[in-house]
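Batch manifest, entry 17 of 40.
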Amino acid sequence: MSEQLLLTPTLPAVAPLAVSPAVSPVAQPAHAPVASPVTPSAPSLVPPAVSEVSTLSLKTEKCVERTRRGRIKTGAKGMSGPVIKITALVLVGLTIIGFVTFDYKNIDFAASVAATLHNAKVMFGQPHLVYNTIPGMMQALLLTLALGALATFFGAILGFFGALLCAKNLANPKIGNVVRVFVAFVRAVPTVLWVLIFSVAAGLGGVAAVVGLTFHSASYLTKAYSESIEEMDNGTIEALKASGATYWQIIFQAVLPASITYMTAWTFLRFEINFANAIAVGAAAGAGGIGYDLFMASAFYFDLSELGFITYLVVIAVVLLELAATKVKSKVR
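Output type: C-alpha cells
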C-alpha cells in the first residue's frame, strides 16, 4: 500500500480561473444600457497653419489692386500723384498759351531752322583755328585745368576738416548744425557769383577765380565727405574709443580707410565741375584760359569754325579726365 502511494504522481494544485467582471455576462446587470459604438471623426486634411495662411492670403488679395493685364499696382496712394499731374497740366497749358500769344515778329520758322542746321554743320563739320594757334589753345587748356585742380585741391582739404566738424557720428551736435547751415548757404549761391564777389576784393584774374571756386568747392565737399563718414559702422569708432585710441588715431585708422573710396569719387566729380566752372569764369572774371578764347570766338569774332574746334578740344579733355578718374578710383579700391 505504501509502495502504491509512493508510485502515484502528485499533480500540482490548479487555481480556479478568475473571470473578469467586464468579460463575464453575469457581471453586468440586466438593466445596464448598451454602449453605442463611437465612430471616429475623419481627420482634417488641411493643417491649421496652412488654413490660416490661406485665409490671410485671401484677405491680402482683396486689398491688392491690379491693372487690366493682371499686374499688381506698386504705386502708393497719396496726394503727390494728383498734385504732380495737375502741375504738369498747368505747365503744359501755360506753354501752349505762351506759344500762341508770343509775338514772333514775322519770323520765318523754316528759314530759322535751316540757318540753325547750317551753323551746326559749319561748327561741328568744319572745325579749324583762325585767330589762335594749337600751342596757344593747349596753353589755355592747361591754364583752365590748373584753375580747376587748384580749386579742387584746396576745397578738398577744407572740405575734409569741415566734414569732421559736421559728421553726426564724430562732431558735437551744436557745432555740426552751425557748420551745416553755413555750408548750405555757401552752396546756395552760384559759383560764378562767388567769383565775381571775390573779384571786387582781389581784382579780375586767376586769384579771384581760384578763391571763388575753392569757396564753393569746400562747401560742396564738406557735405559729401560728411555723408560718406556717416555711412561707416559706428561700432568701429566705439571699439577704438573703448581701447583708448585718440581722436586723430580714430580718424586716420578707422574713418579715413573706411570712406576713402567715396571721398575719391566725390573729389573727382568736383574736379570735373570745377573744370566746367573754370571755363565759364574764364571770361566772366578775366581769369583767362580756354573759356576766354571760347567767349571771344563766339561773341566777338563769331567764328563758328573756331568755336567748333574749341568745343571739340573741351570735349576731349573732359573724356580724358573721366578716364583718368576711373583709373584712379579703381586703384584706390
